[in-house]
Amino acid sequence: MLPLLHLRQSCALFLSSWYRLSCVCIFLLLFQSQKCSADRIFDLENFQMLSNYDKRAVIVNKMGAAIRDSIHRRNERIQSRRPRKEICYDKVGCFSIPRRSVAPFGKKTPQSPEDIDTKFWLLTRENPTEPQFLKYSDDKISIKSSHFNVSRPTKFIAHGFKGSGKDRGAWNIVEALLEIEDVNVILVDWEKGAAGPSYALAATNTQIIGRQLALLILDMVSFGADPQDIHIVGFSLGAHVAGYAGRGVQNKGFKIGRITGLDPASPLFRQLLATSLVSLNSGDAHYVDVIHSDGARHWSEGLGLFEAIGHSDYFPNGGLDQPGCEHKKNAVLVSHLEGTMNSSVVCNHIRAWKLFYESLKMSKQEDGCKFFAFHCPGGLKSFKLGTCFPQRCVENSPDGSCGMMGYGSEESKARGALYLVTRDTAPYCGNLSISDLRVDGLAVISSAYAEANEGARYAVLWKEKGKKQFLVK
Questions:
Q1: Are 424 and 321 in contact (CB under 8 A)?
Q2: What are the structural domains of the chain?
Q3: Is 147 a catalytic residue?
Q4: Which residues is 313 bridged to in the sheet?
Q5: With contact defined as beta carbons under 8 Å apart, do 371 and 405 qualify?
Q6: Which of 55-59, 158-162, 177-181 shows the lowest per-residue confidence on average (mean pLDDT)?
Q7: Which of 48, 152, 183, 203 has CA atoms 20 to 30 A from the CA of 131?
């Protein structure tokens, strides 16, 4: 208590009445803070207001800064001694709220498995339209009684925010997969958990779905399935579901073959990229490929991650905005969080799903168009300038100079960030060309080139003066 007595005496001798009042208040606060219980956190905001009561009290403010630092350190010690609040559910385990106020999902814990009511629907060539319900941790009873075949590759499809396993887009991919391959296809239907009502709640629910999916995969592995033959395709929040599932399987000593992230969701995940335990990353499977179609370089600009997080990251049209979509960046974050999205707002975001689906359809055709992509060391800027445009791309290029976006991505040797251009409407795939001819900054086609490609359809991108133009015919 000796330092406190010195402080009181100093205030009484040297300071005016205004200063004296401030010092008395500080003394009382300090004395009260010593009496606080070990579980009480000092209110820094109120102390800030008090210490700024008189702007002339320079000495008090300086002392206040030191005291605030001391209080902050004390609060940290108290927080470190507090047990983390957590909630536990049968089979899937426990989920904790971080100590810090900056929690990944706004200090929310996932809903219960009963509330989320996840459904795993199995479809095969034996039952292409009549899904069979699979359960996790049921001693493999549902697997044994279904058409699941351990000798086939297994594909999981996971939807995103506000999505459903009944969505037409999901079923389009199921039908395309069963047409080109004899596979087990499983729809991960977490409609109730994805509905929110808030985006933050749906985001934290991805942890539950990921663990449930991991348990089902482990049941399949114990039944005889090869984890290398397992491929999860996740759109938006579904991409992070895939990441959690991959890590859950690894915790038991296995690693799945592939994860495809279709424009992985950015809000509440982008700031946590350094935390590999939260967002999808390249360590979650032997091969992780990602399509970025609505990338966000700022938290309010887009629905998808712009950062490269996989072994192969594809950036169609630069990965930020897609041709044929309106510029809706200002409404993106609010609409995403409030669940008021419409087709124009999600146009860029959902393009990744459409591109992957088209790559599936094209893979059925012997001469089907390929989404060839190329490296661009200078990133987006060099891509726009056209300085890294290759002369030609060939399928499965031996030097890995060209990649192939979509379903056949794993066959390519290309890794890292890869760029390509697409058409503005389906079919999105086309043959790439480049032009240096311009009229008021817009590329034009020479008469000789037009005659050689009579009837071809072109999409002109990056309509900026002084820059090369990419053309897709």
A1: no
A2: 89-420 (3.40.50.1820)
A3: no
A4: 290, 417
A5: yes
A6: 55-59
A7: 203
Q: pTM for the full model?
A: 0.75
Q: Is 236 a catalytic residue?
A: yes
Confidence at 406, pLDDT banded by 50, 70, 90: very high
Catalytic residue flag (residue 263): yes
Q: Tell me which residue of 304, 118, 136 sits closest to 193, measured CA to CA.
A: 118
CA 367 to chain CA mean position, Å:
33
242 within 8 A of 210, measured Cβ to Cβ:
yes
Of 385, 383, 405, the closest CA to residue 395 belongs to 405
How do 154-158 and 230-235 pair as beta strands? parallel
What tens digit of pLDDT does each residue of 34-93 get?
A: 444 433 333 333 334 333 434 444 444 556 666 666 665 665 565 455 455 788 999 999
pLDDT at 264 over 50: yes
* Angle 418-424-429 from CA coordinates, rounded to 5°: 55
pLDDT, residue 404, reads 93
Catalytic residue, candidates 236, 266, 293, 359: 236
Q: Which of 240, 335, 349, 409 is catalytic?
A: 349
Q: Which helix (H) or strand (E) holds 75?
A: helix 58-81
DSSP state of 225: -
Residue among 429, 431, 434, 424 at smallest CA distance from 459:
424
Count of C-beta atoms within a 10 Å radius of residue 314: 27
Inter-residue contact 236 to 169 (CB < 8 Å): no
Q: Phi then psi for 47, rounded to 5 degrees?
A: -65, -35
DSSP-derived pairing of the beta strands 287-291 and 312-316? parallel
- Residue given tokens 């041709």 in the structure block: 323
Q: Which of 167, 263, 284, 294 is catalytic?
A: 263
CA end-to-end span of the chain: 82
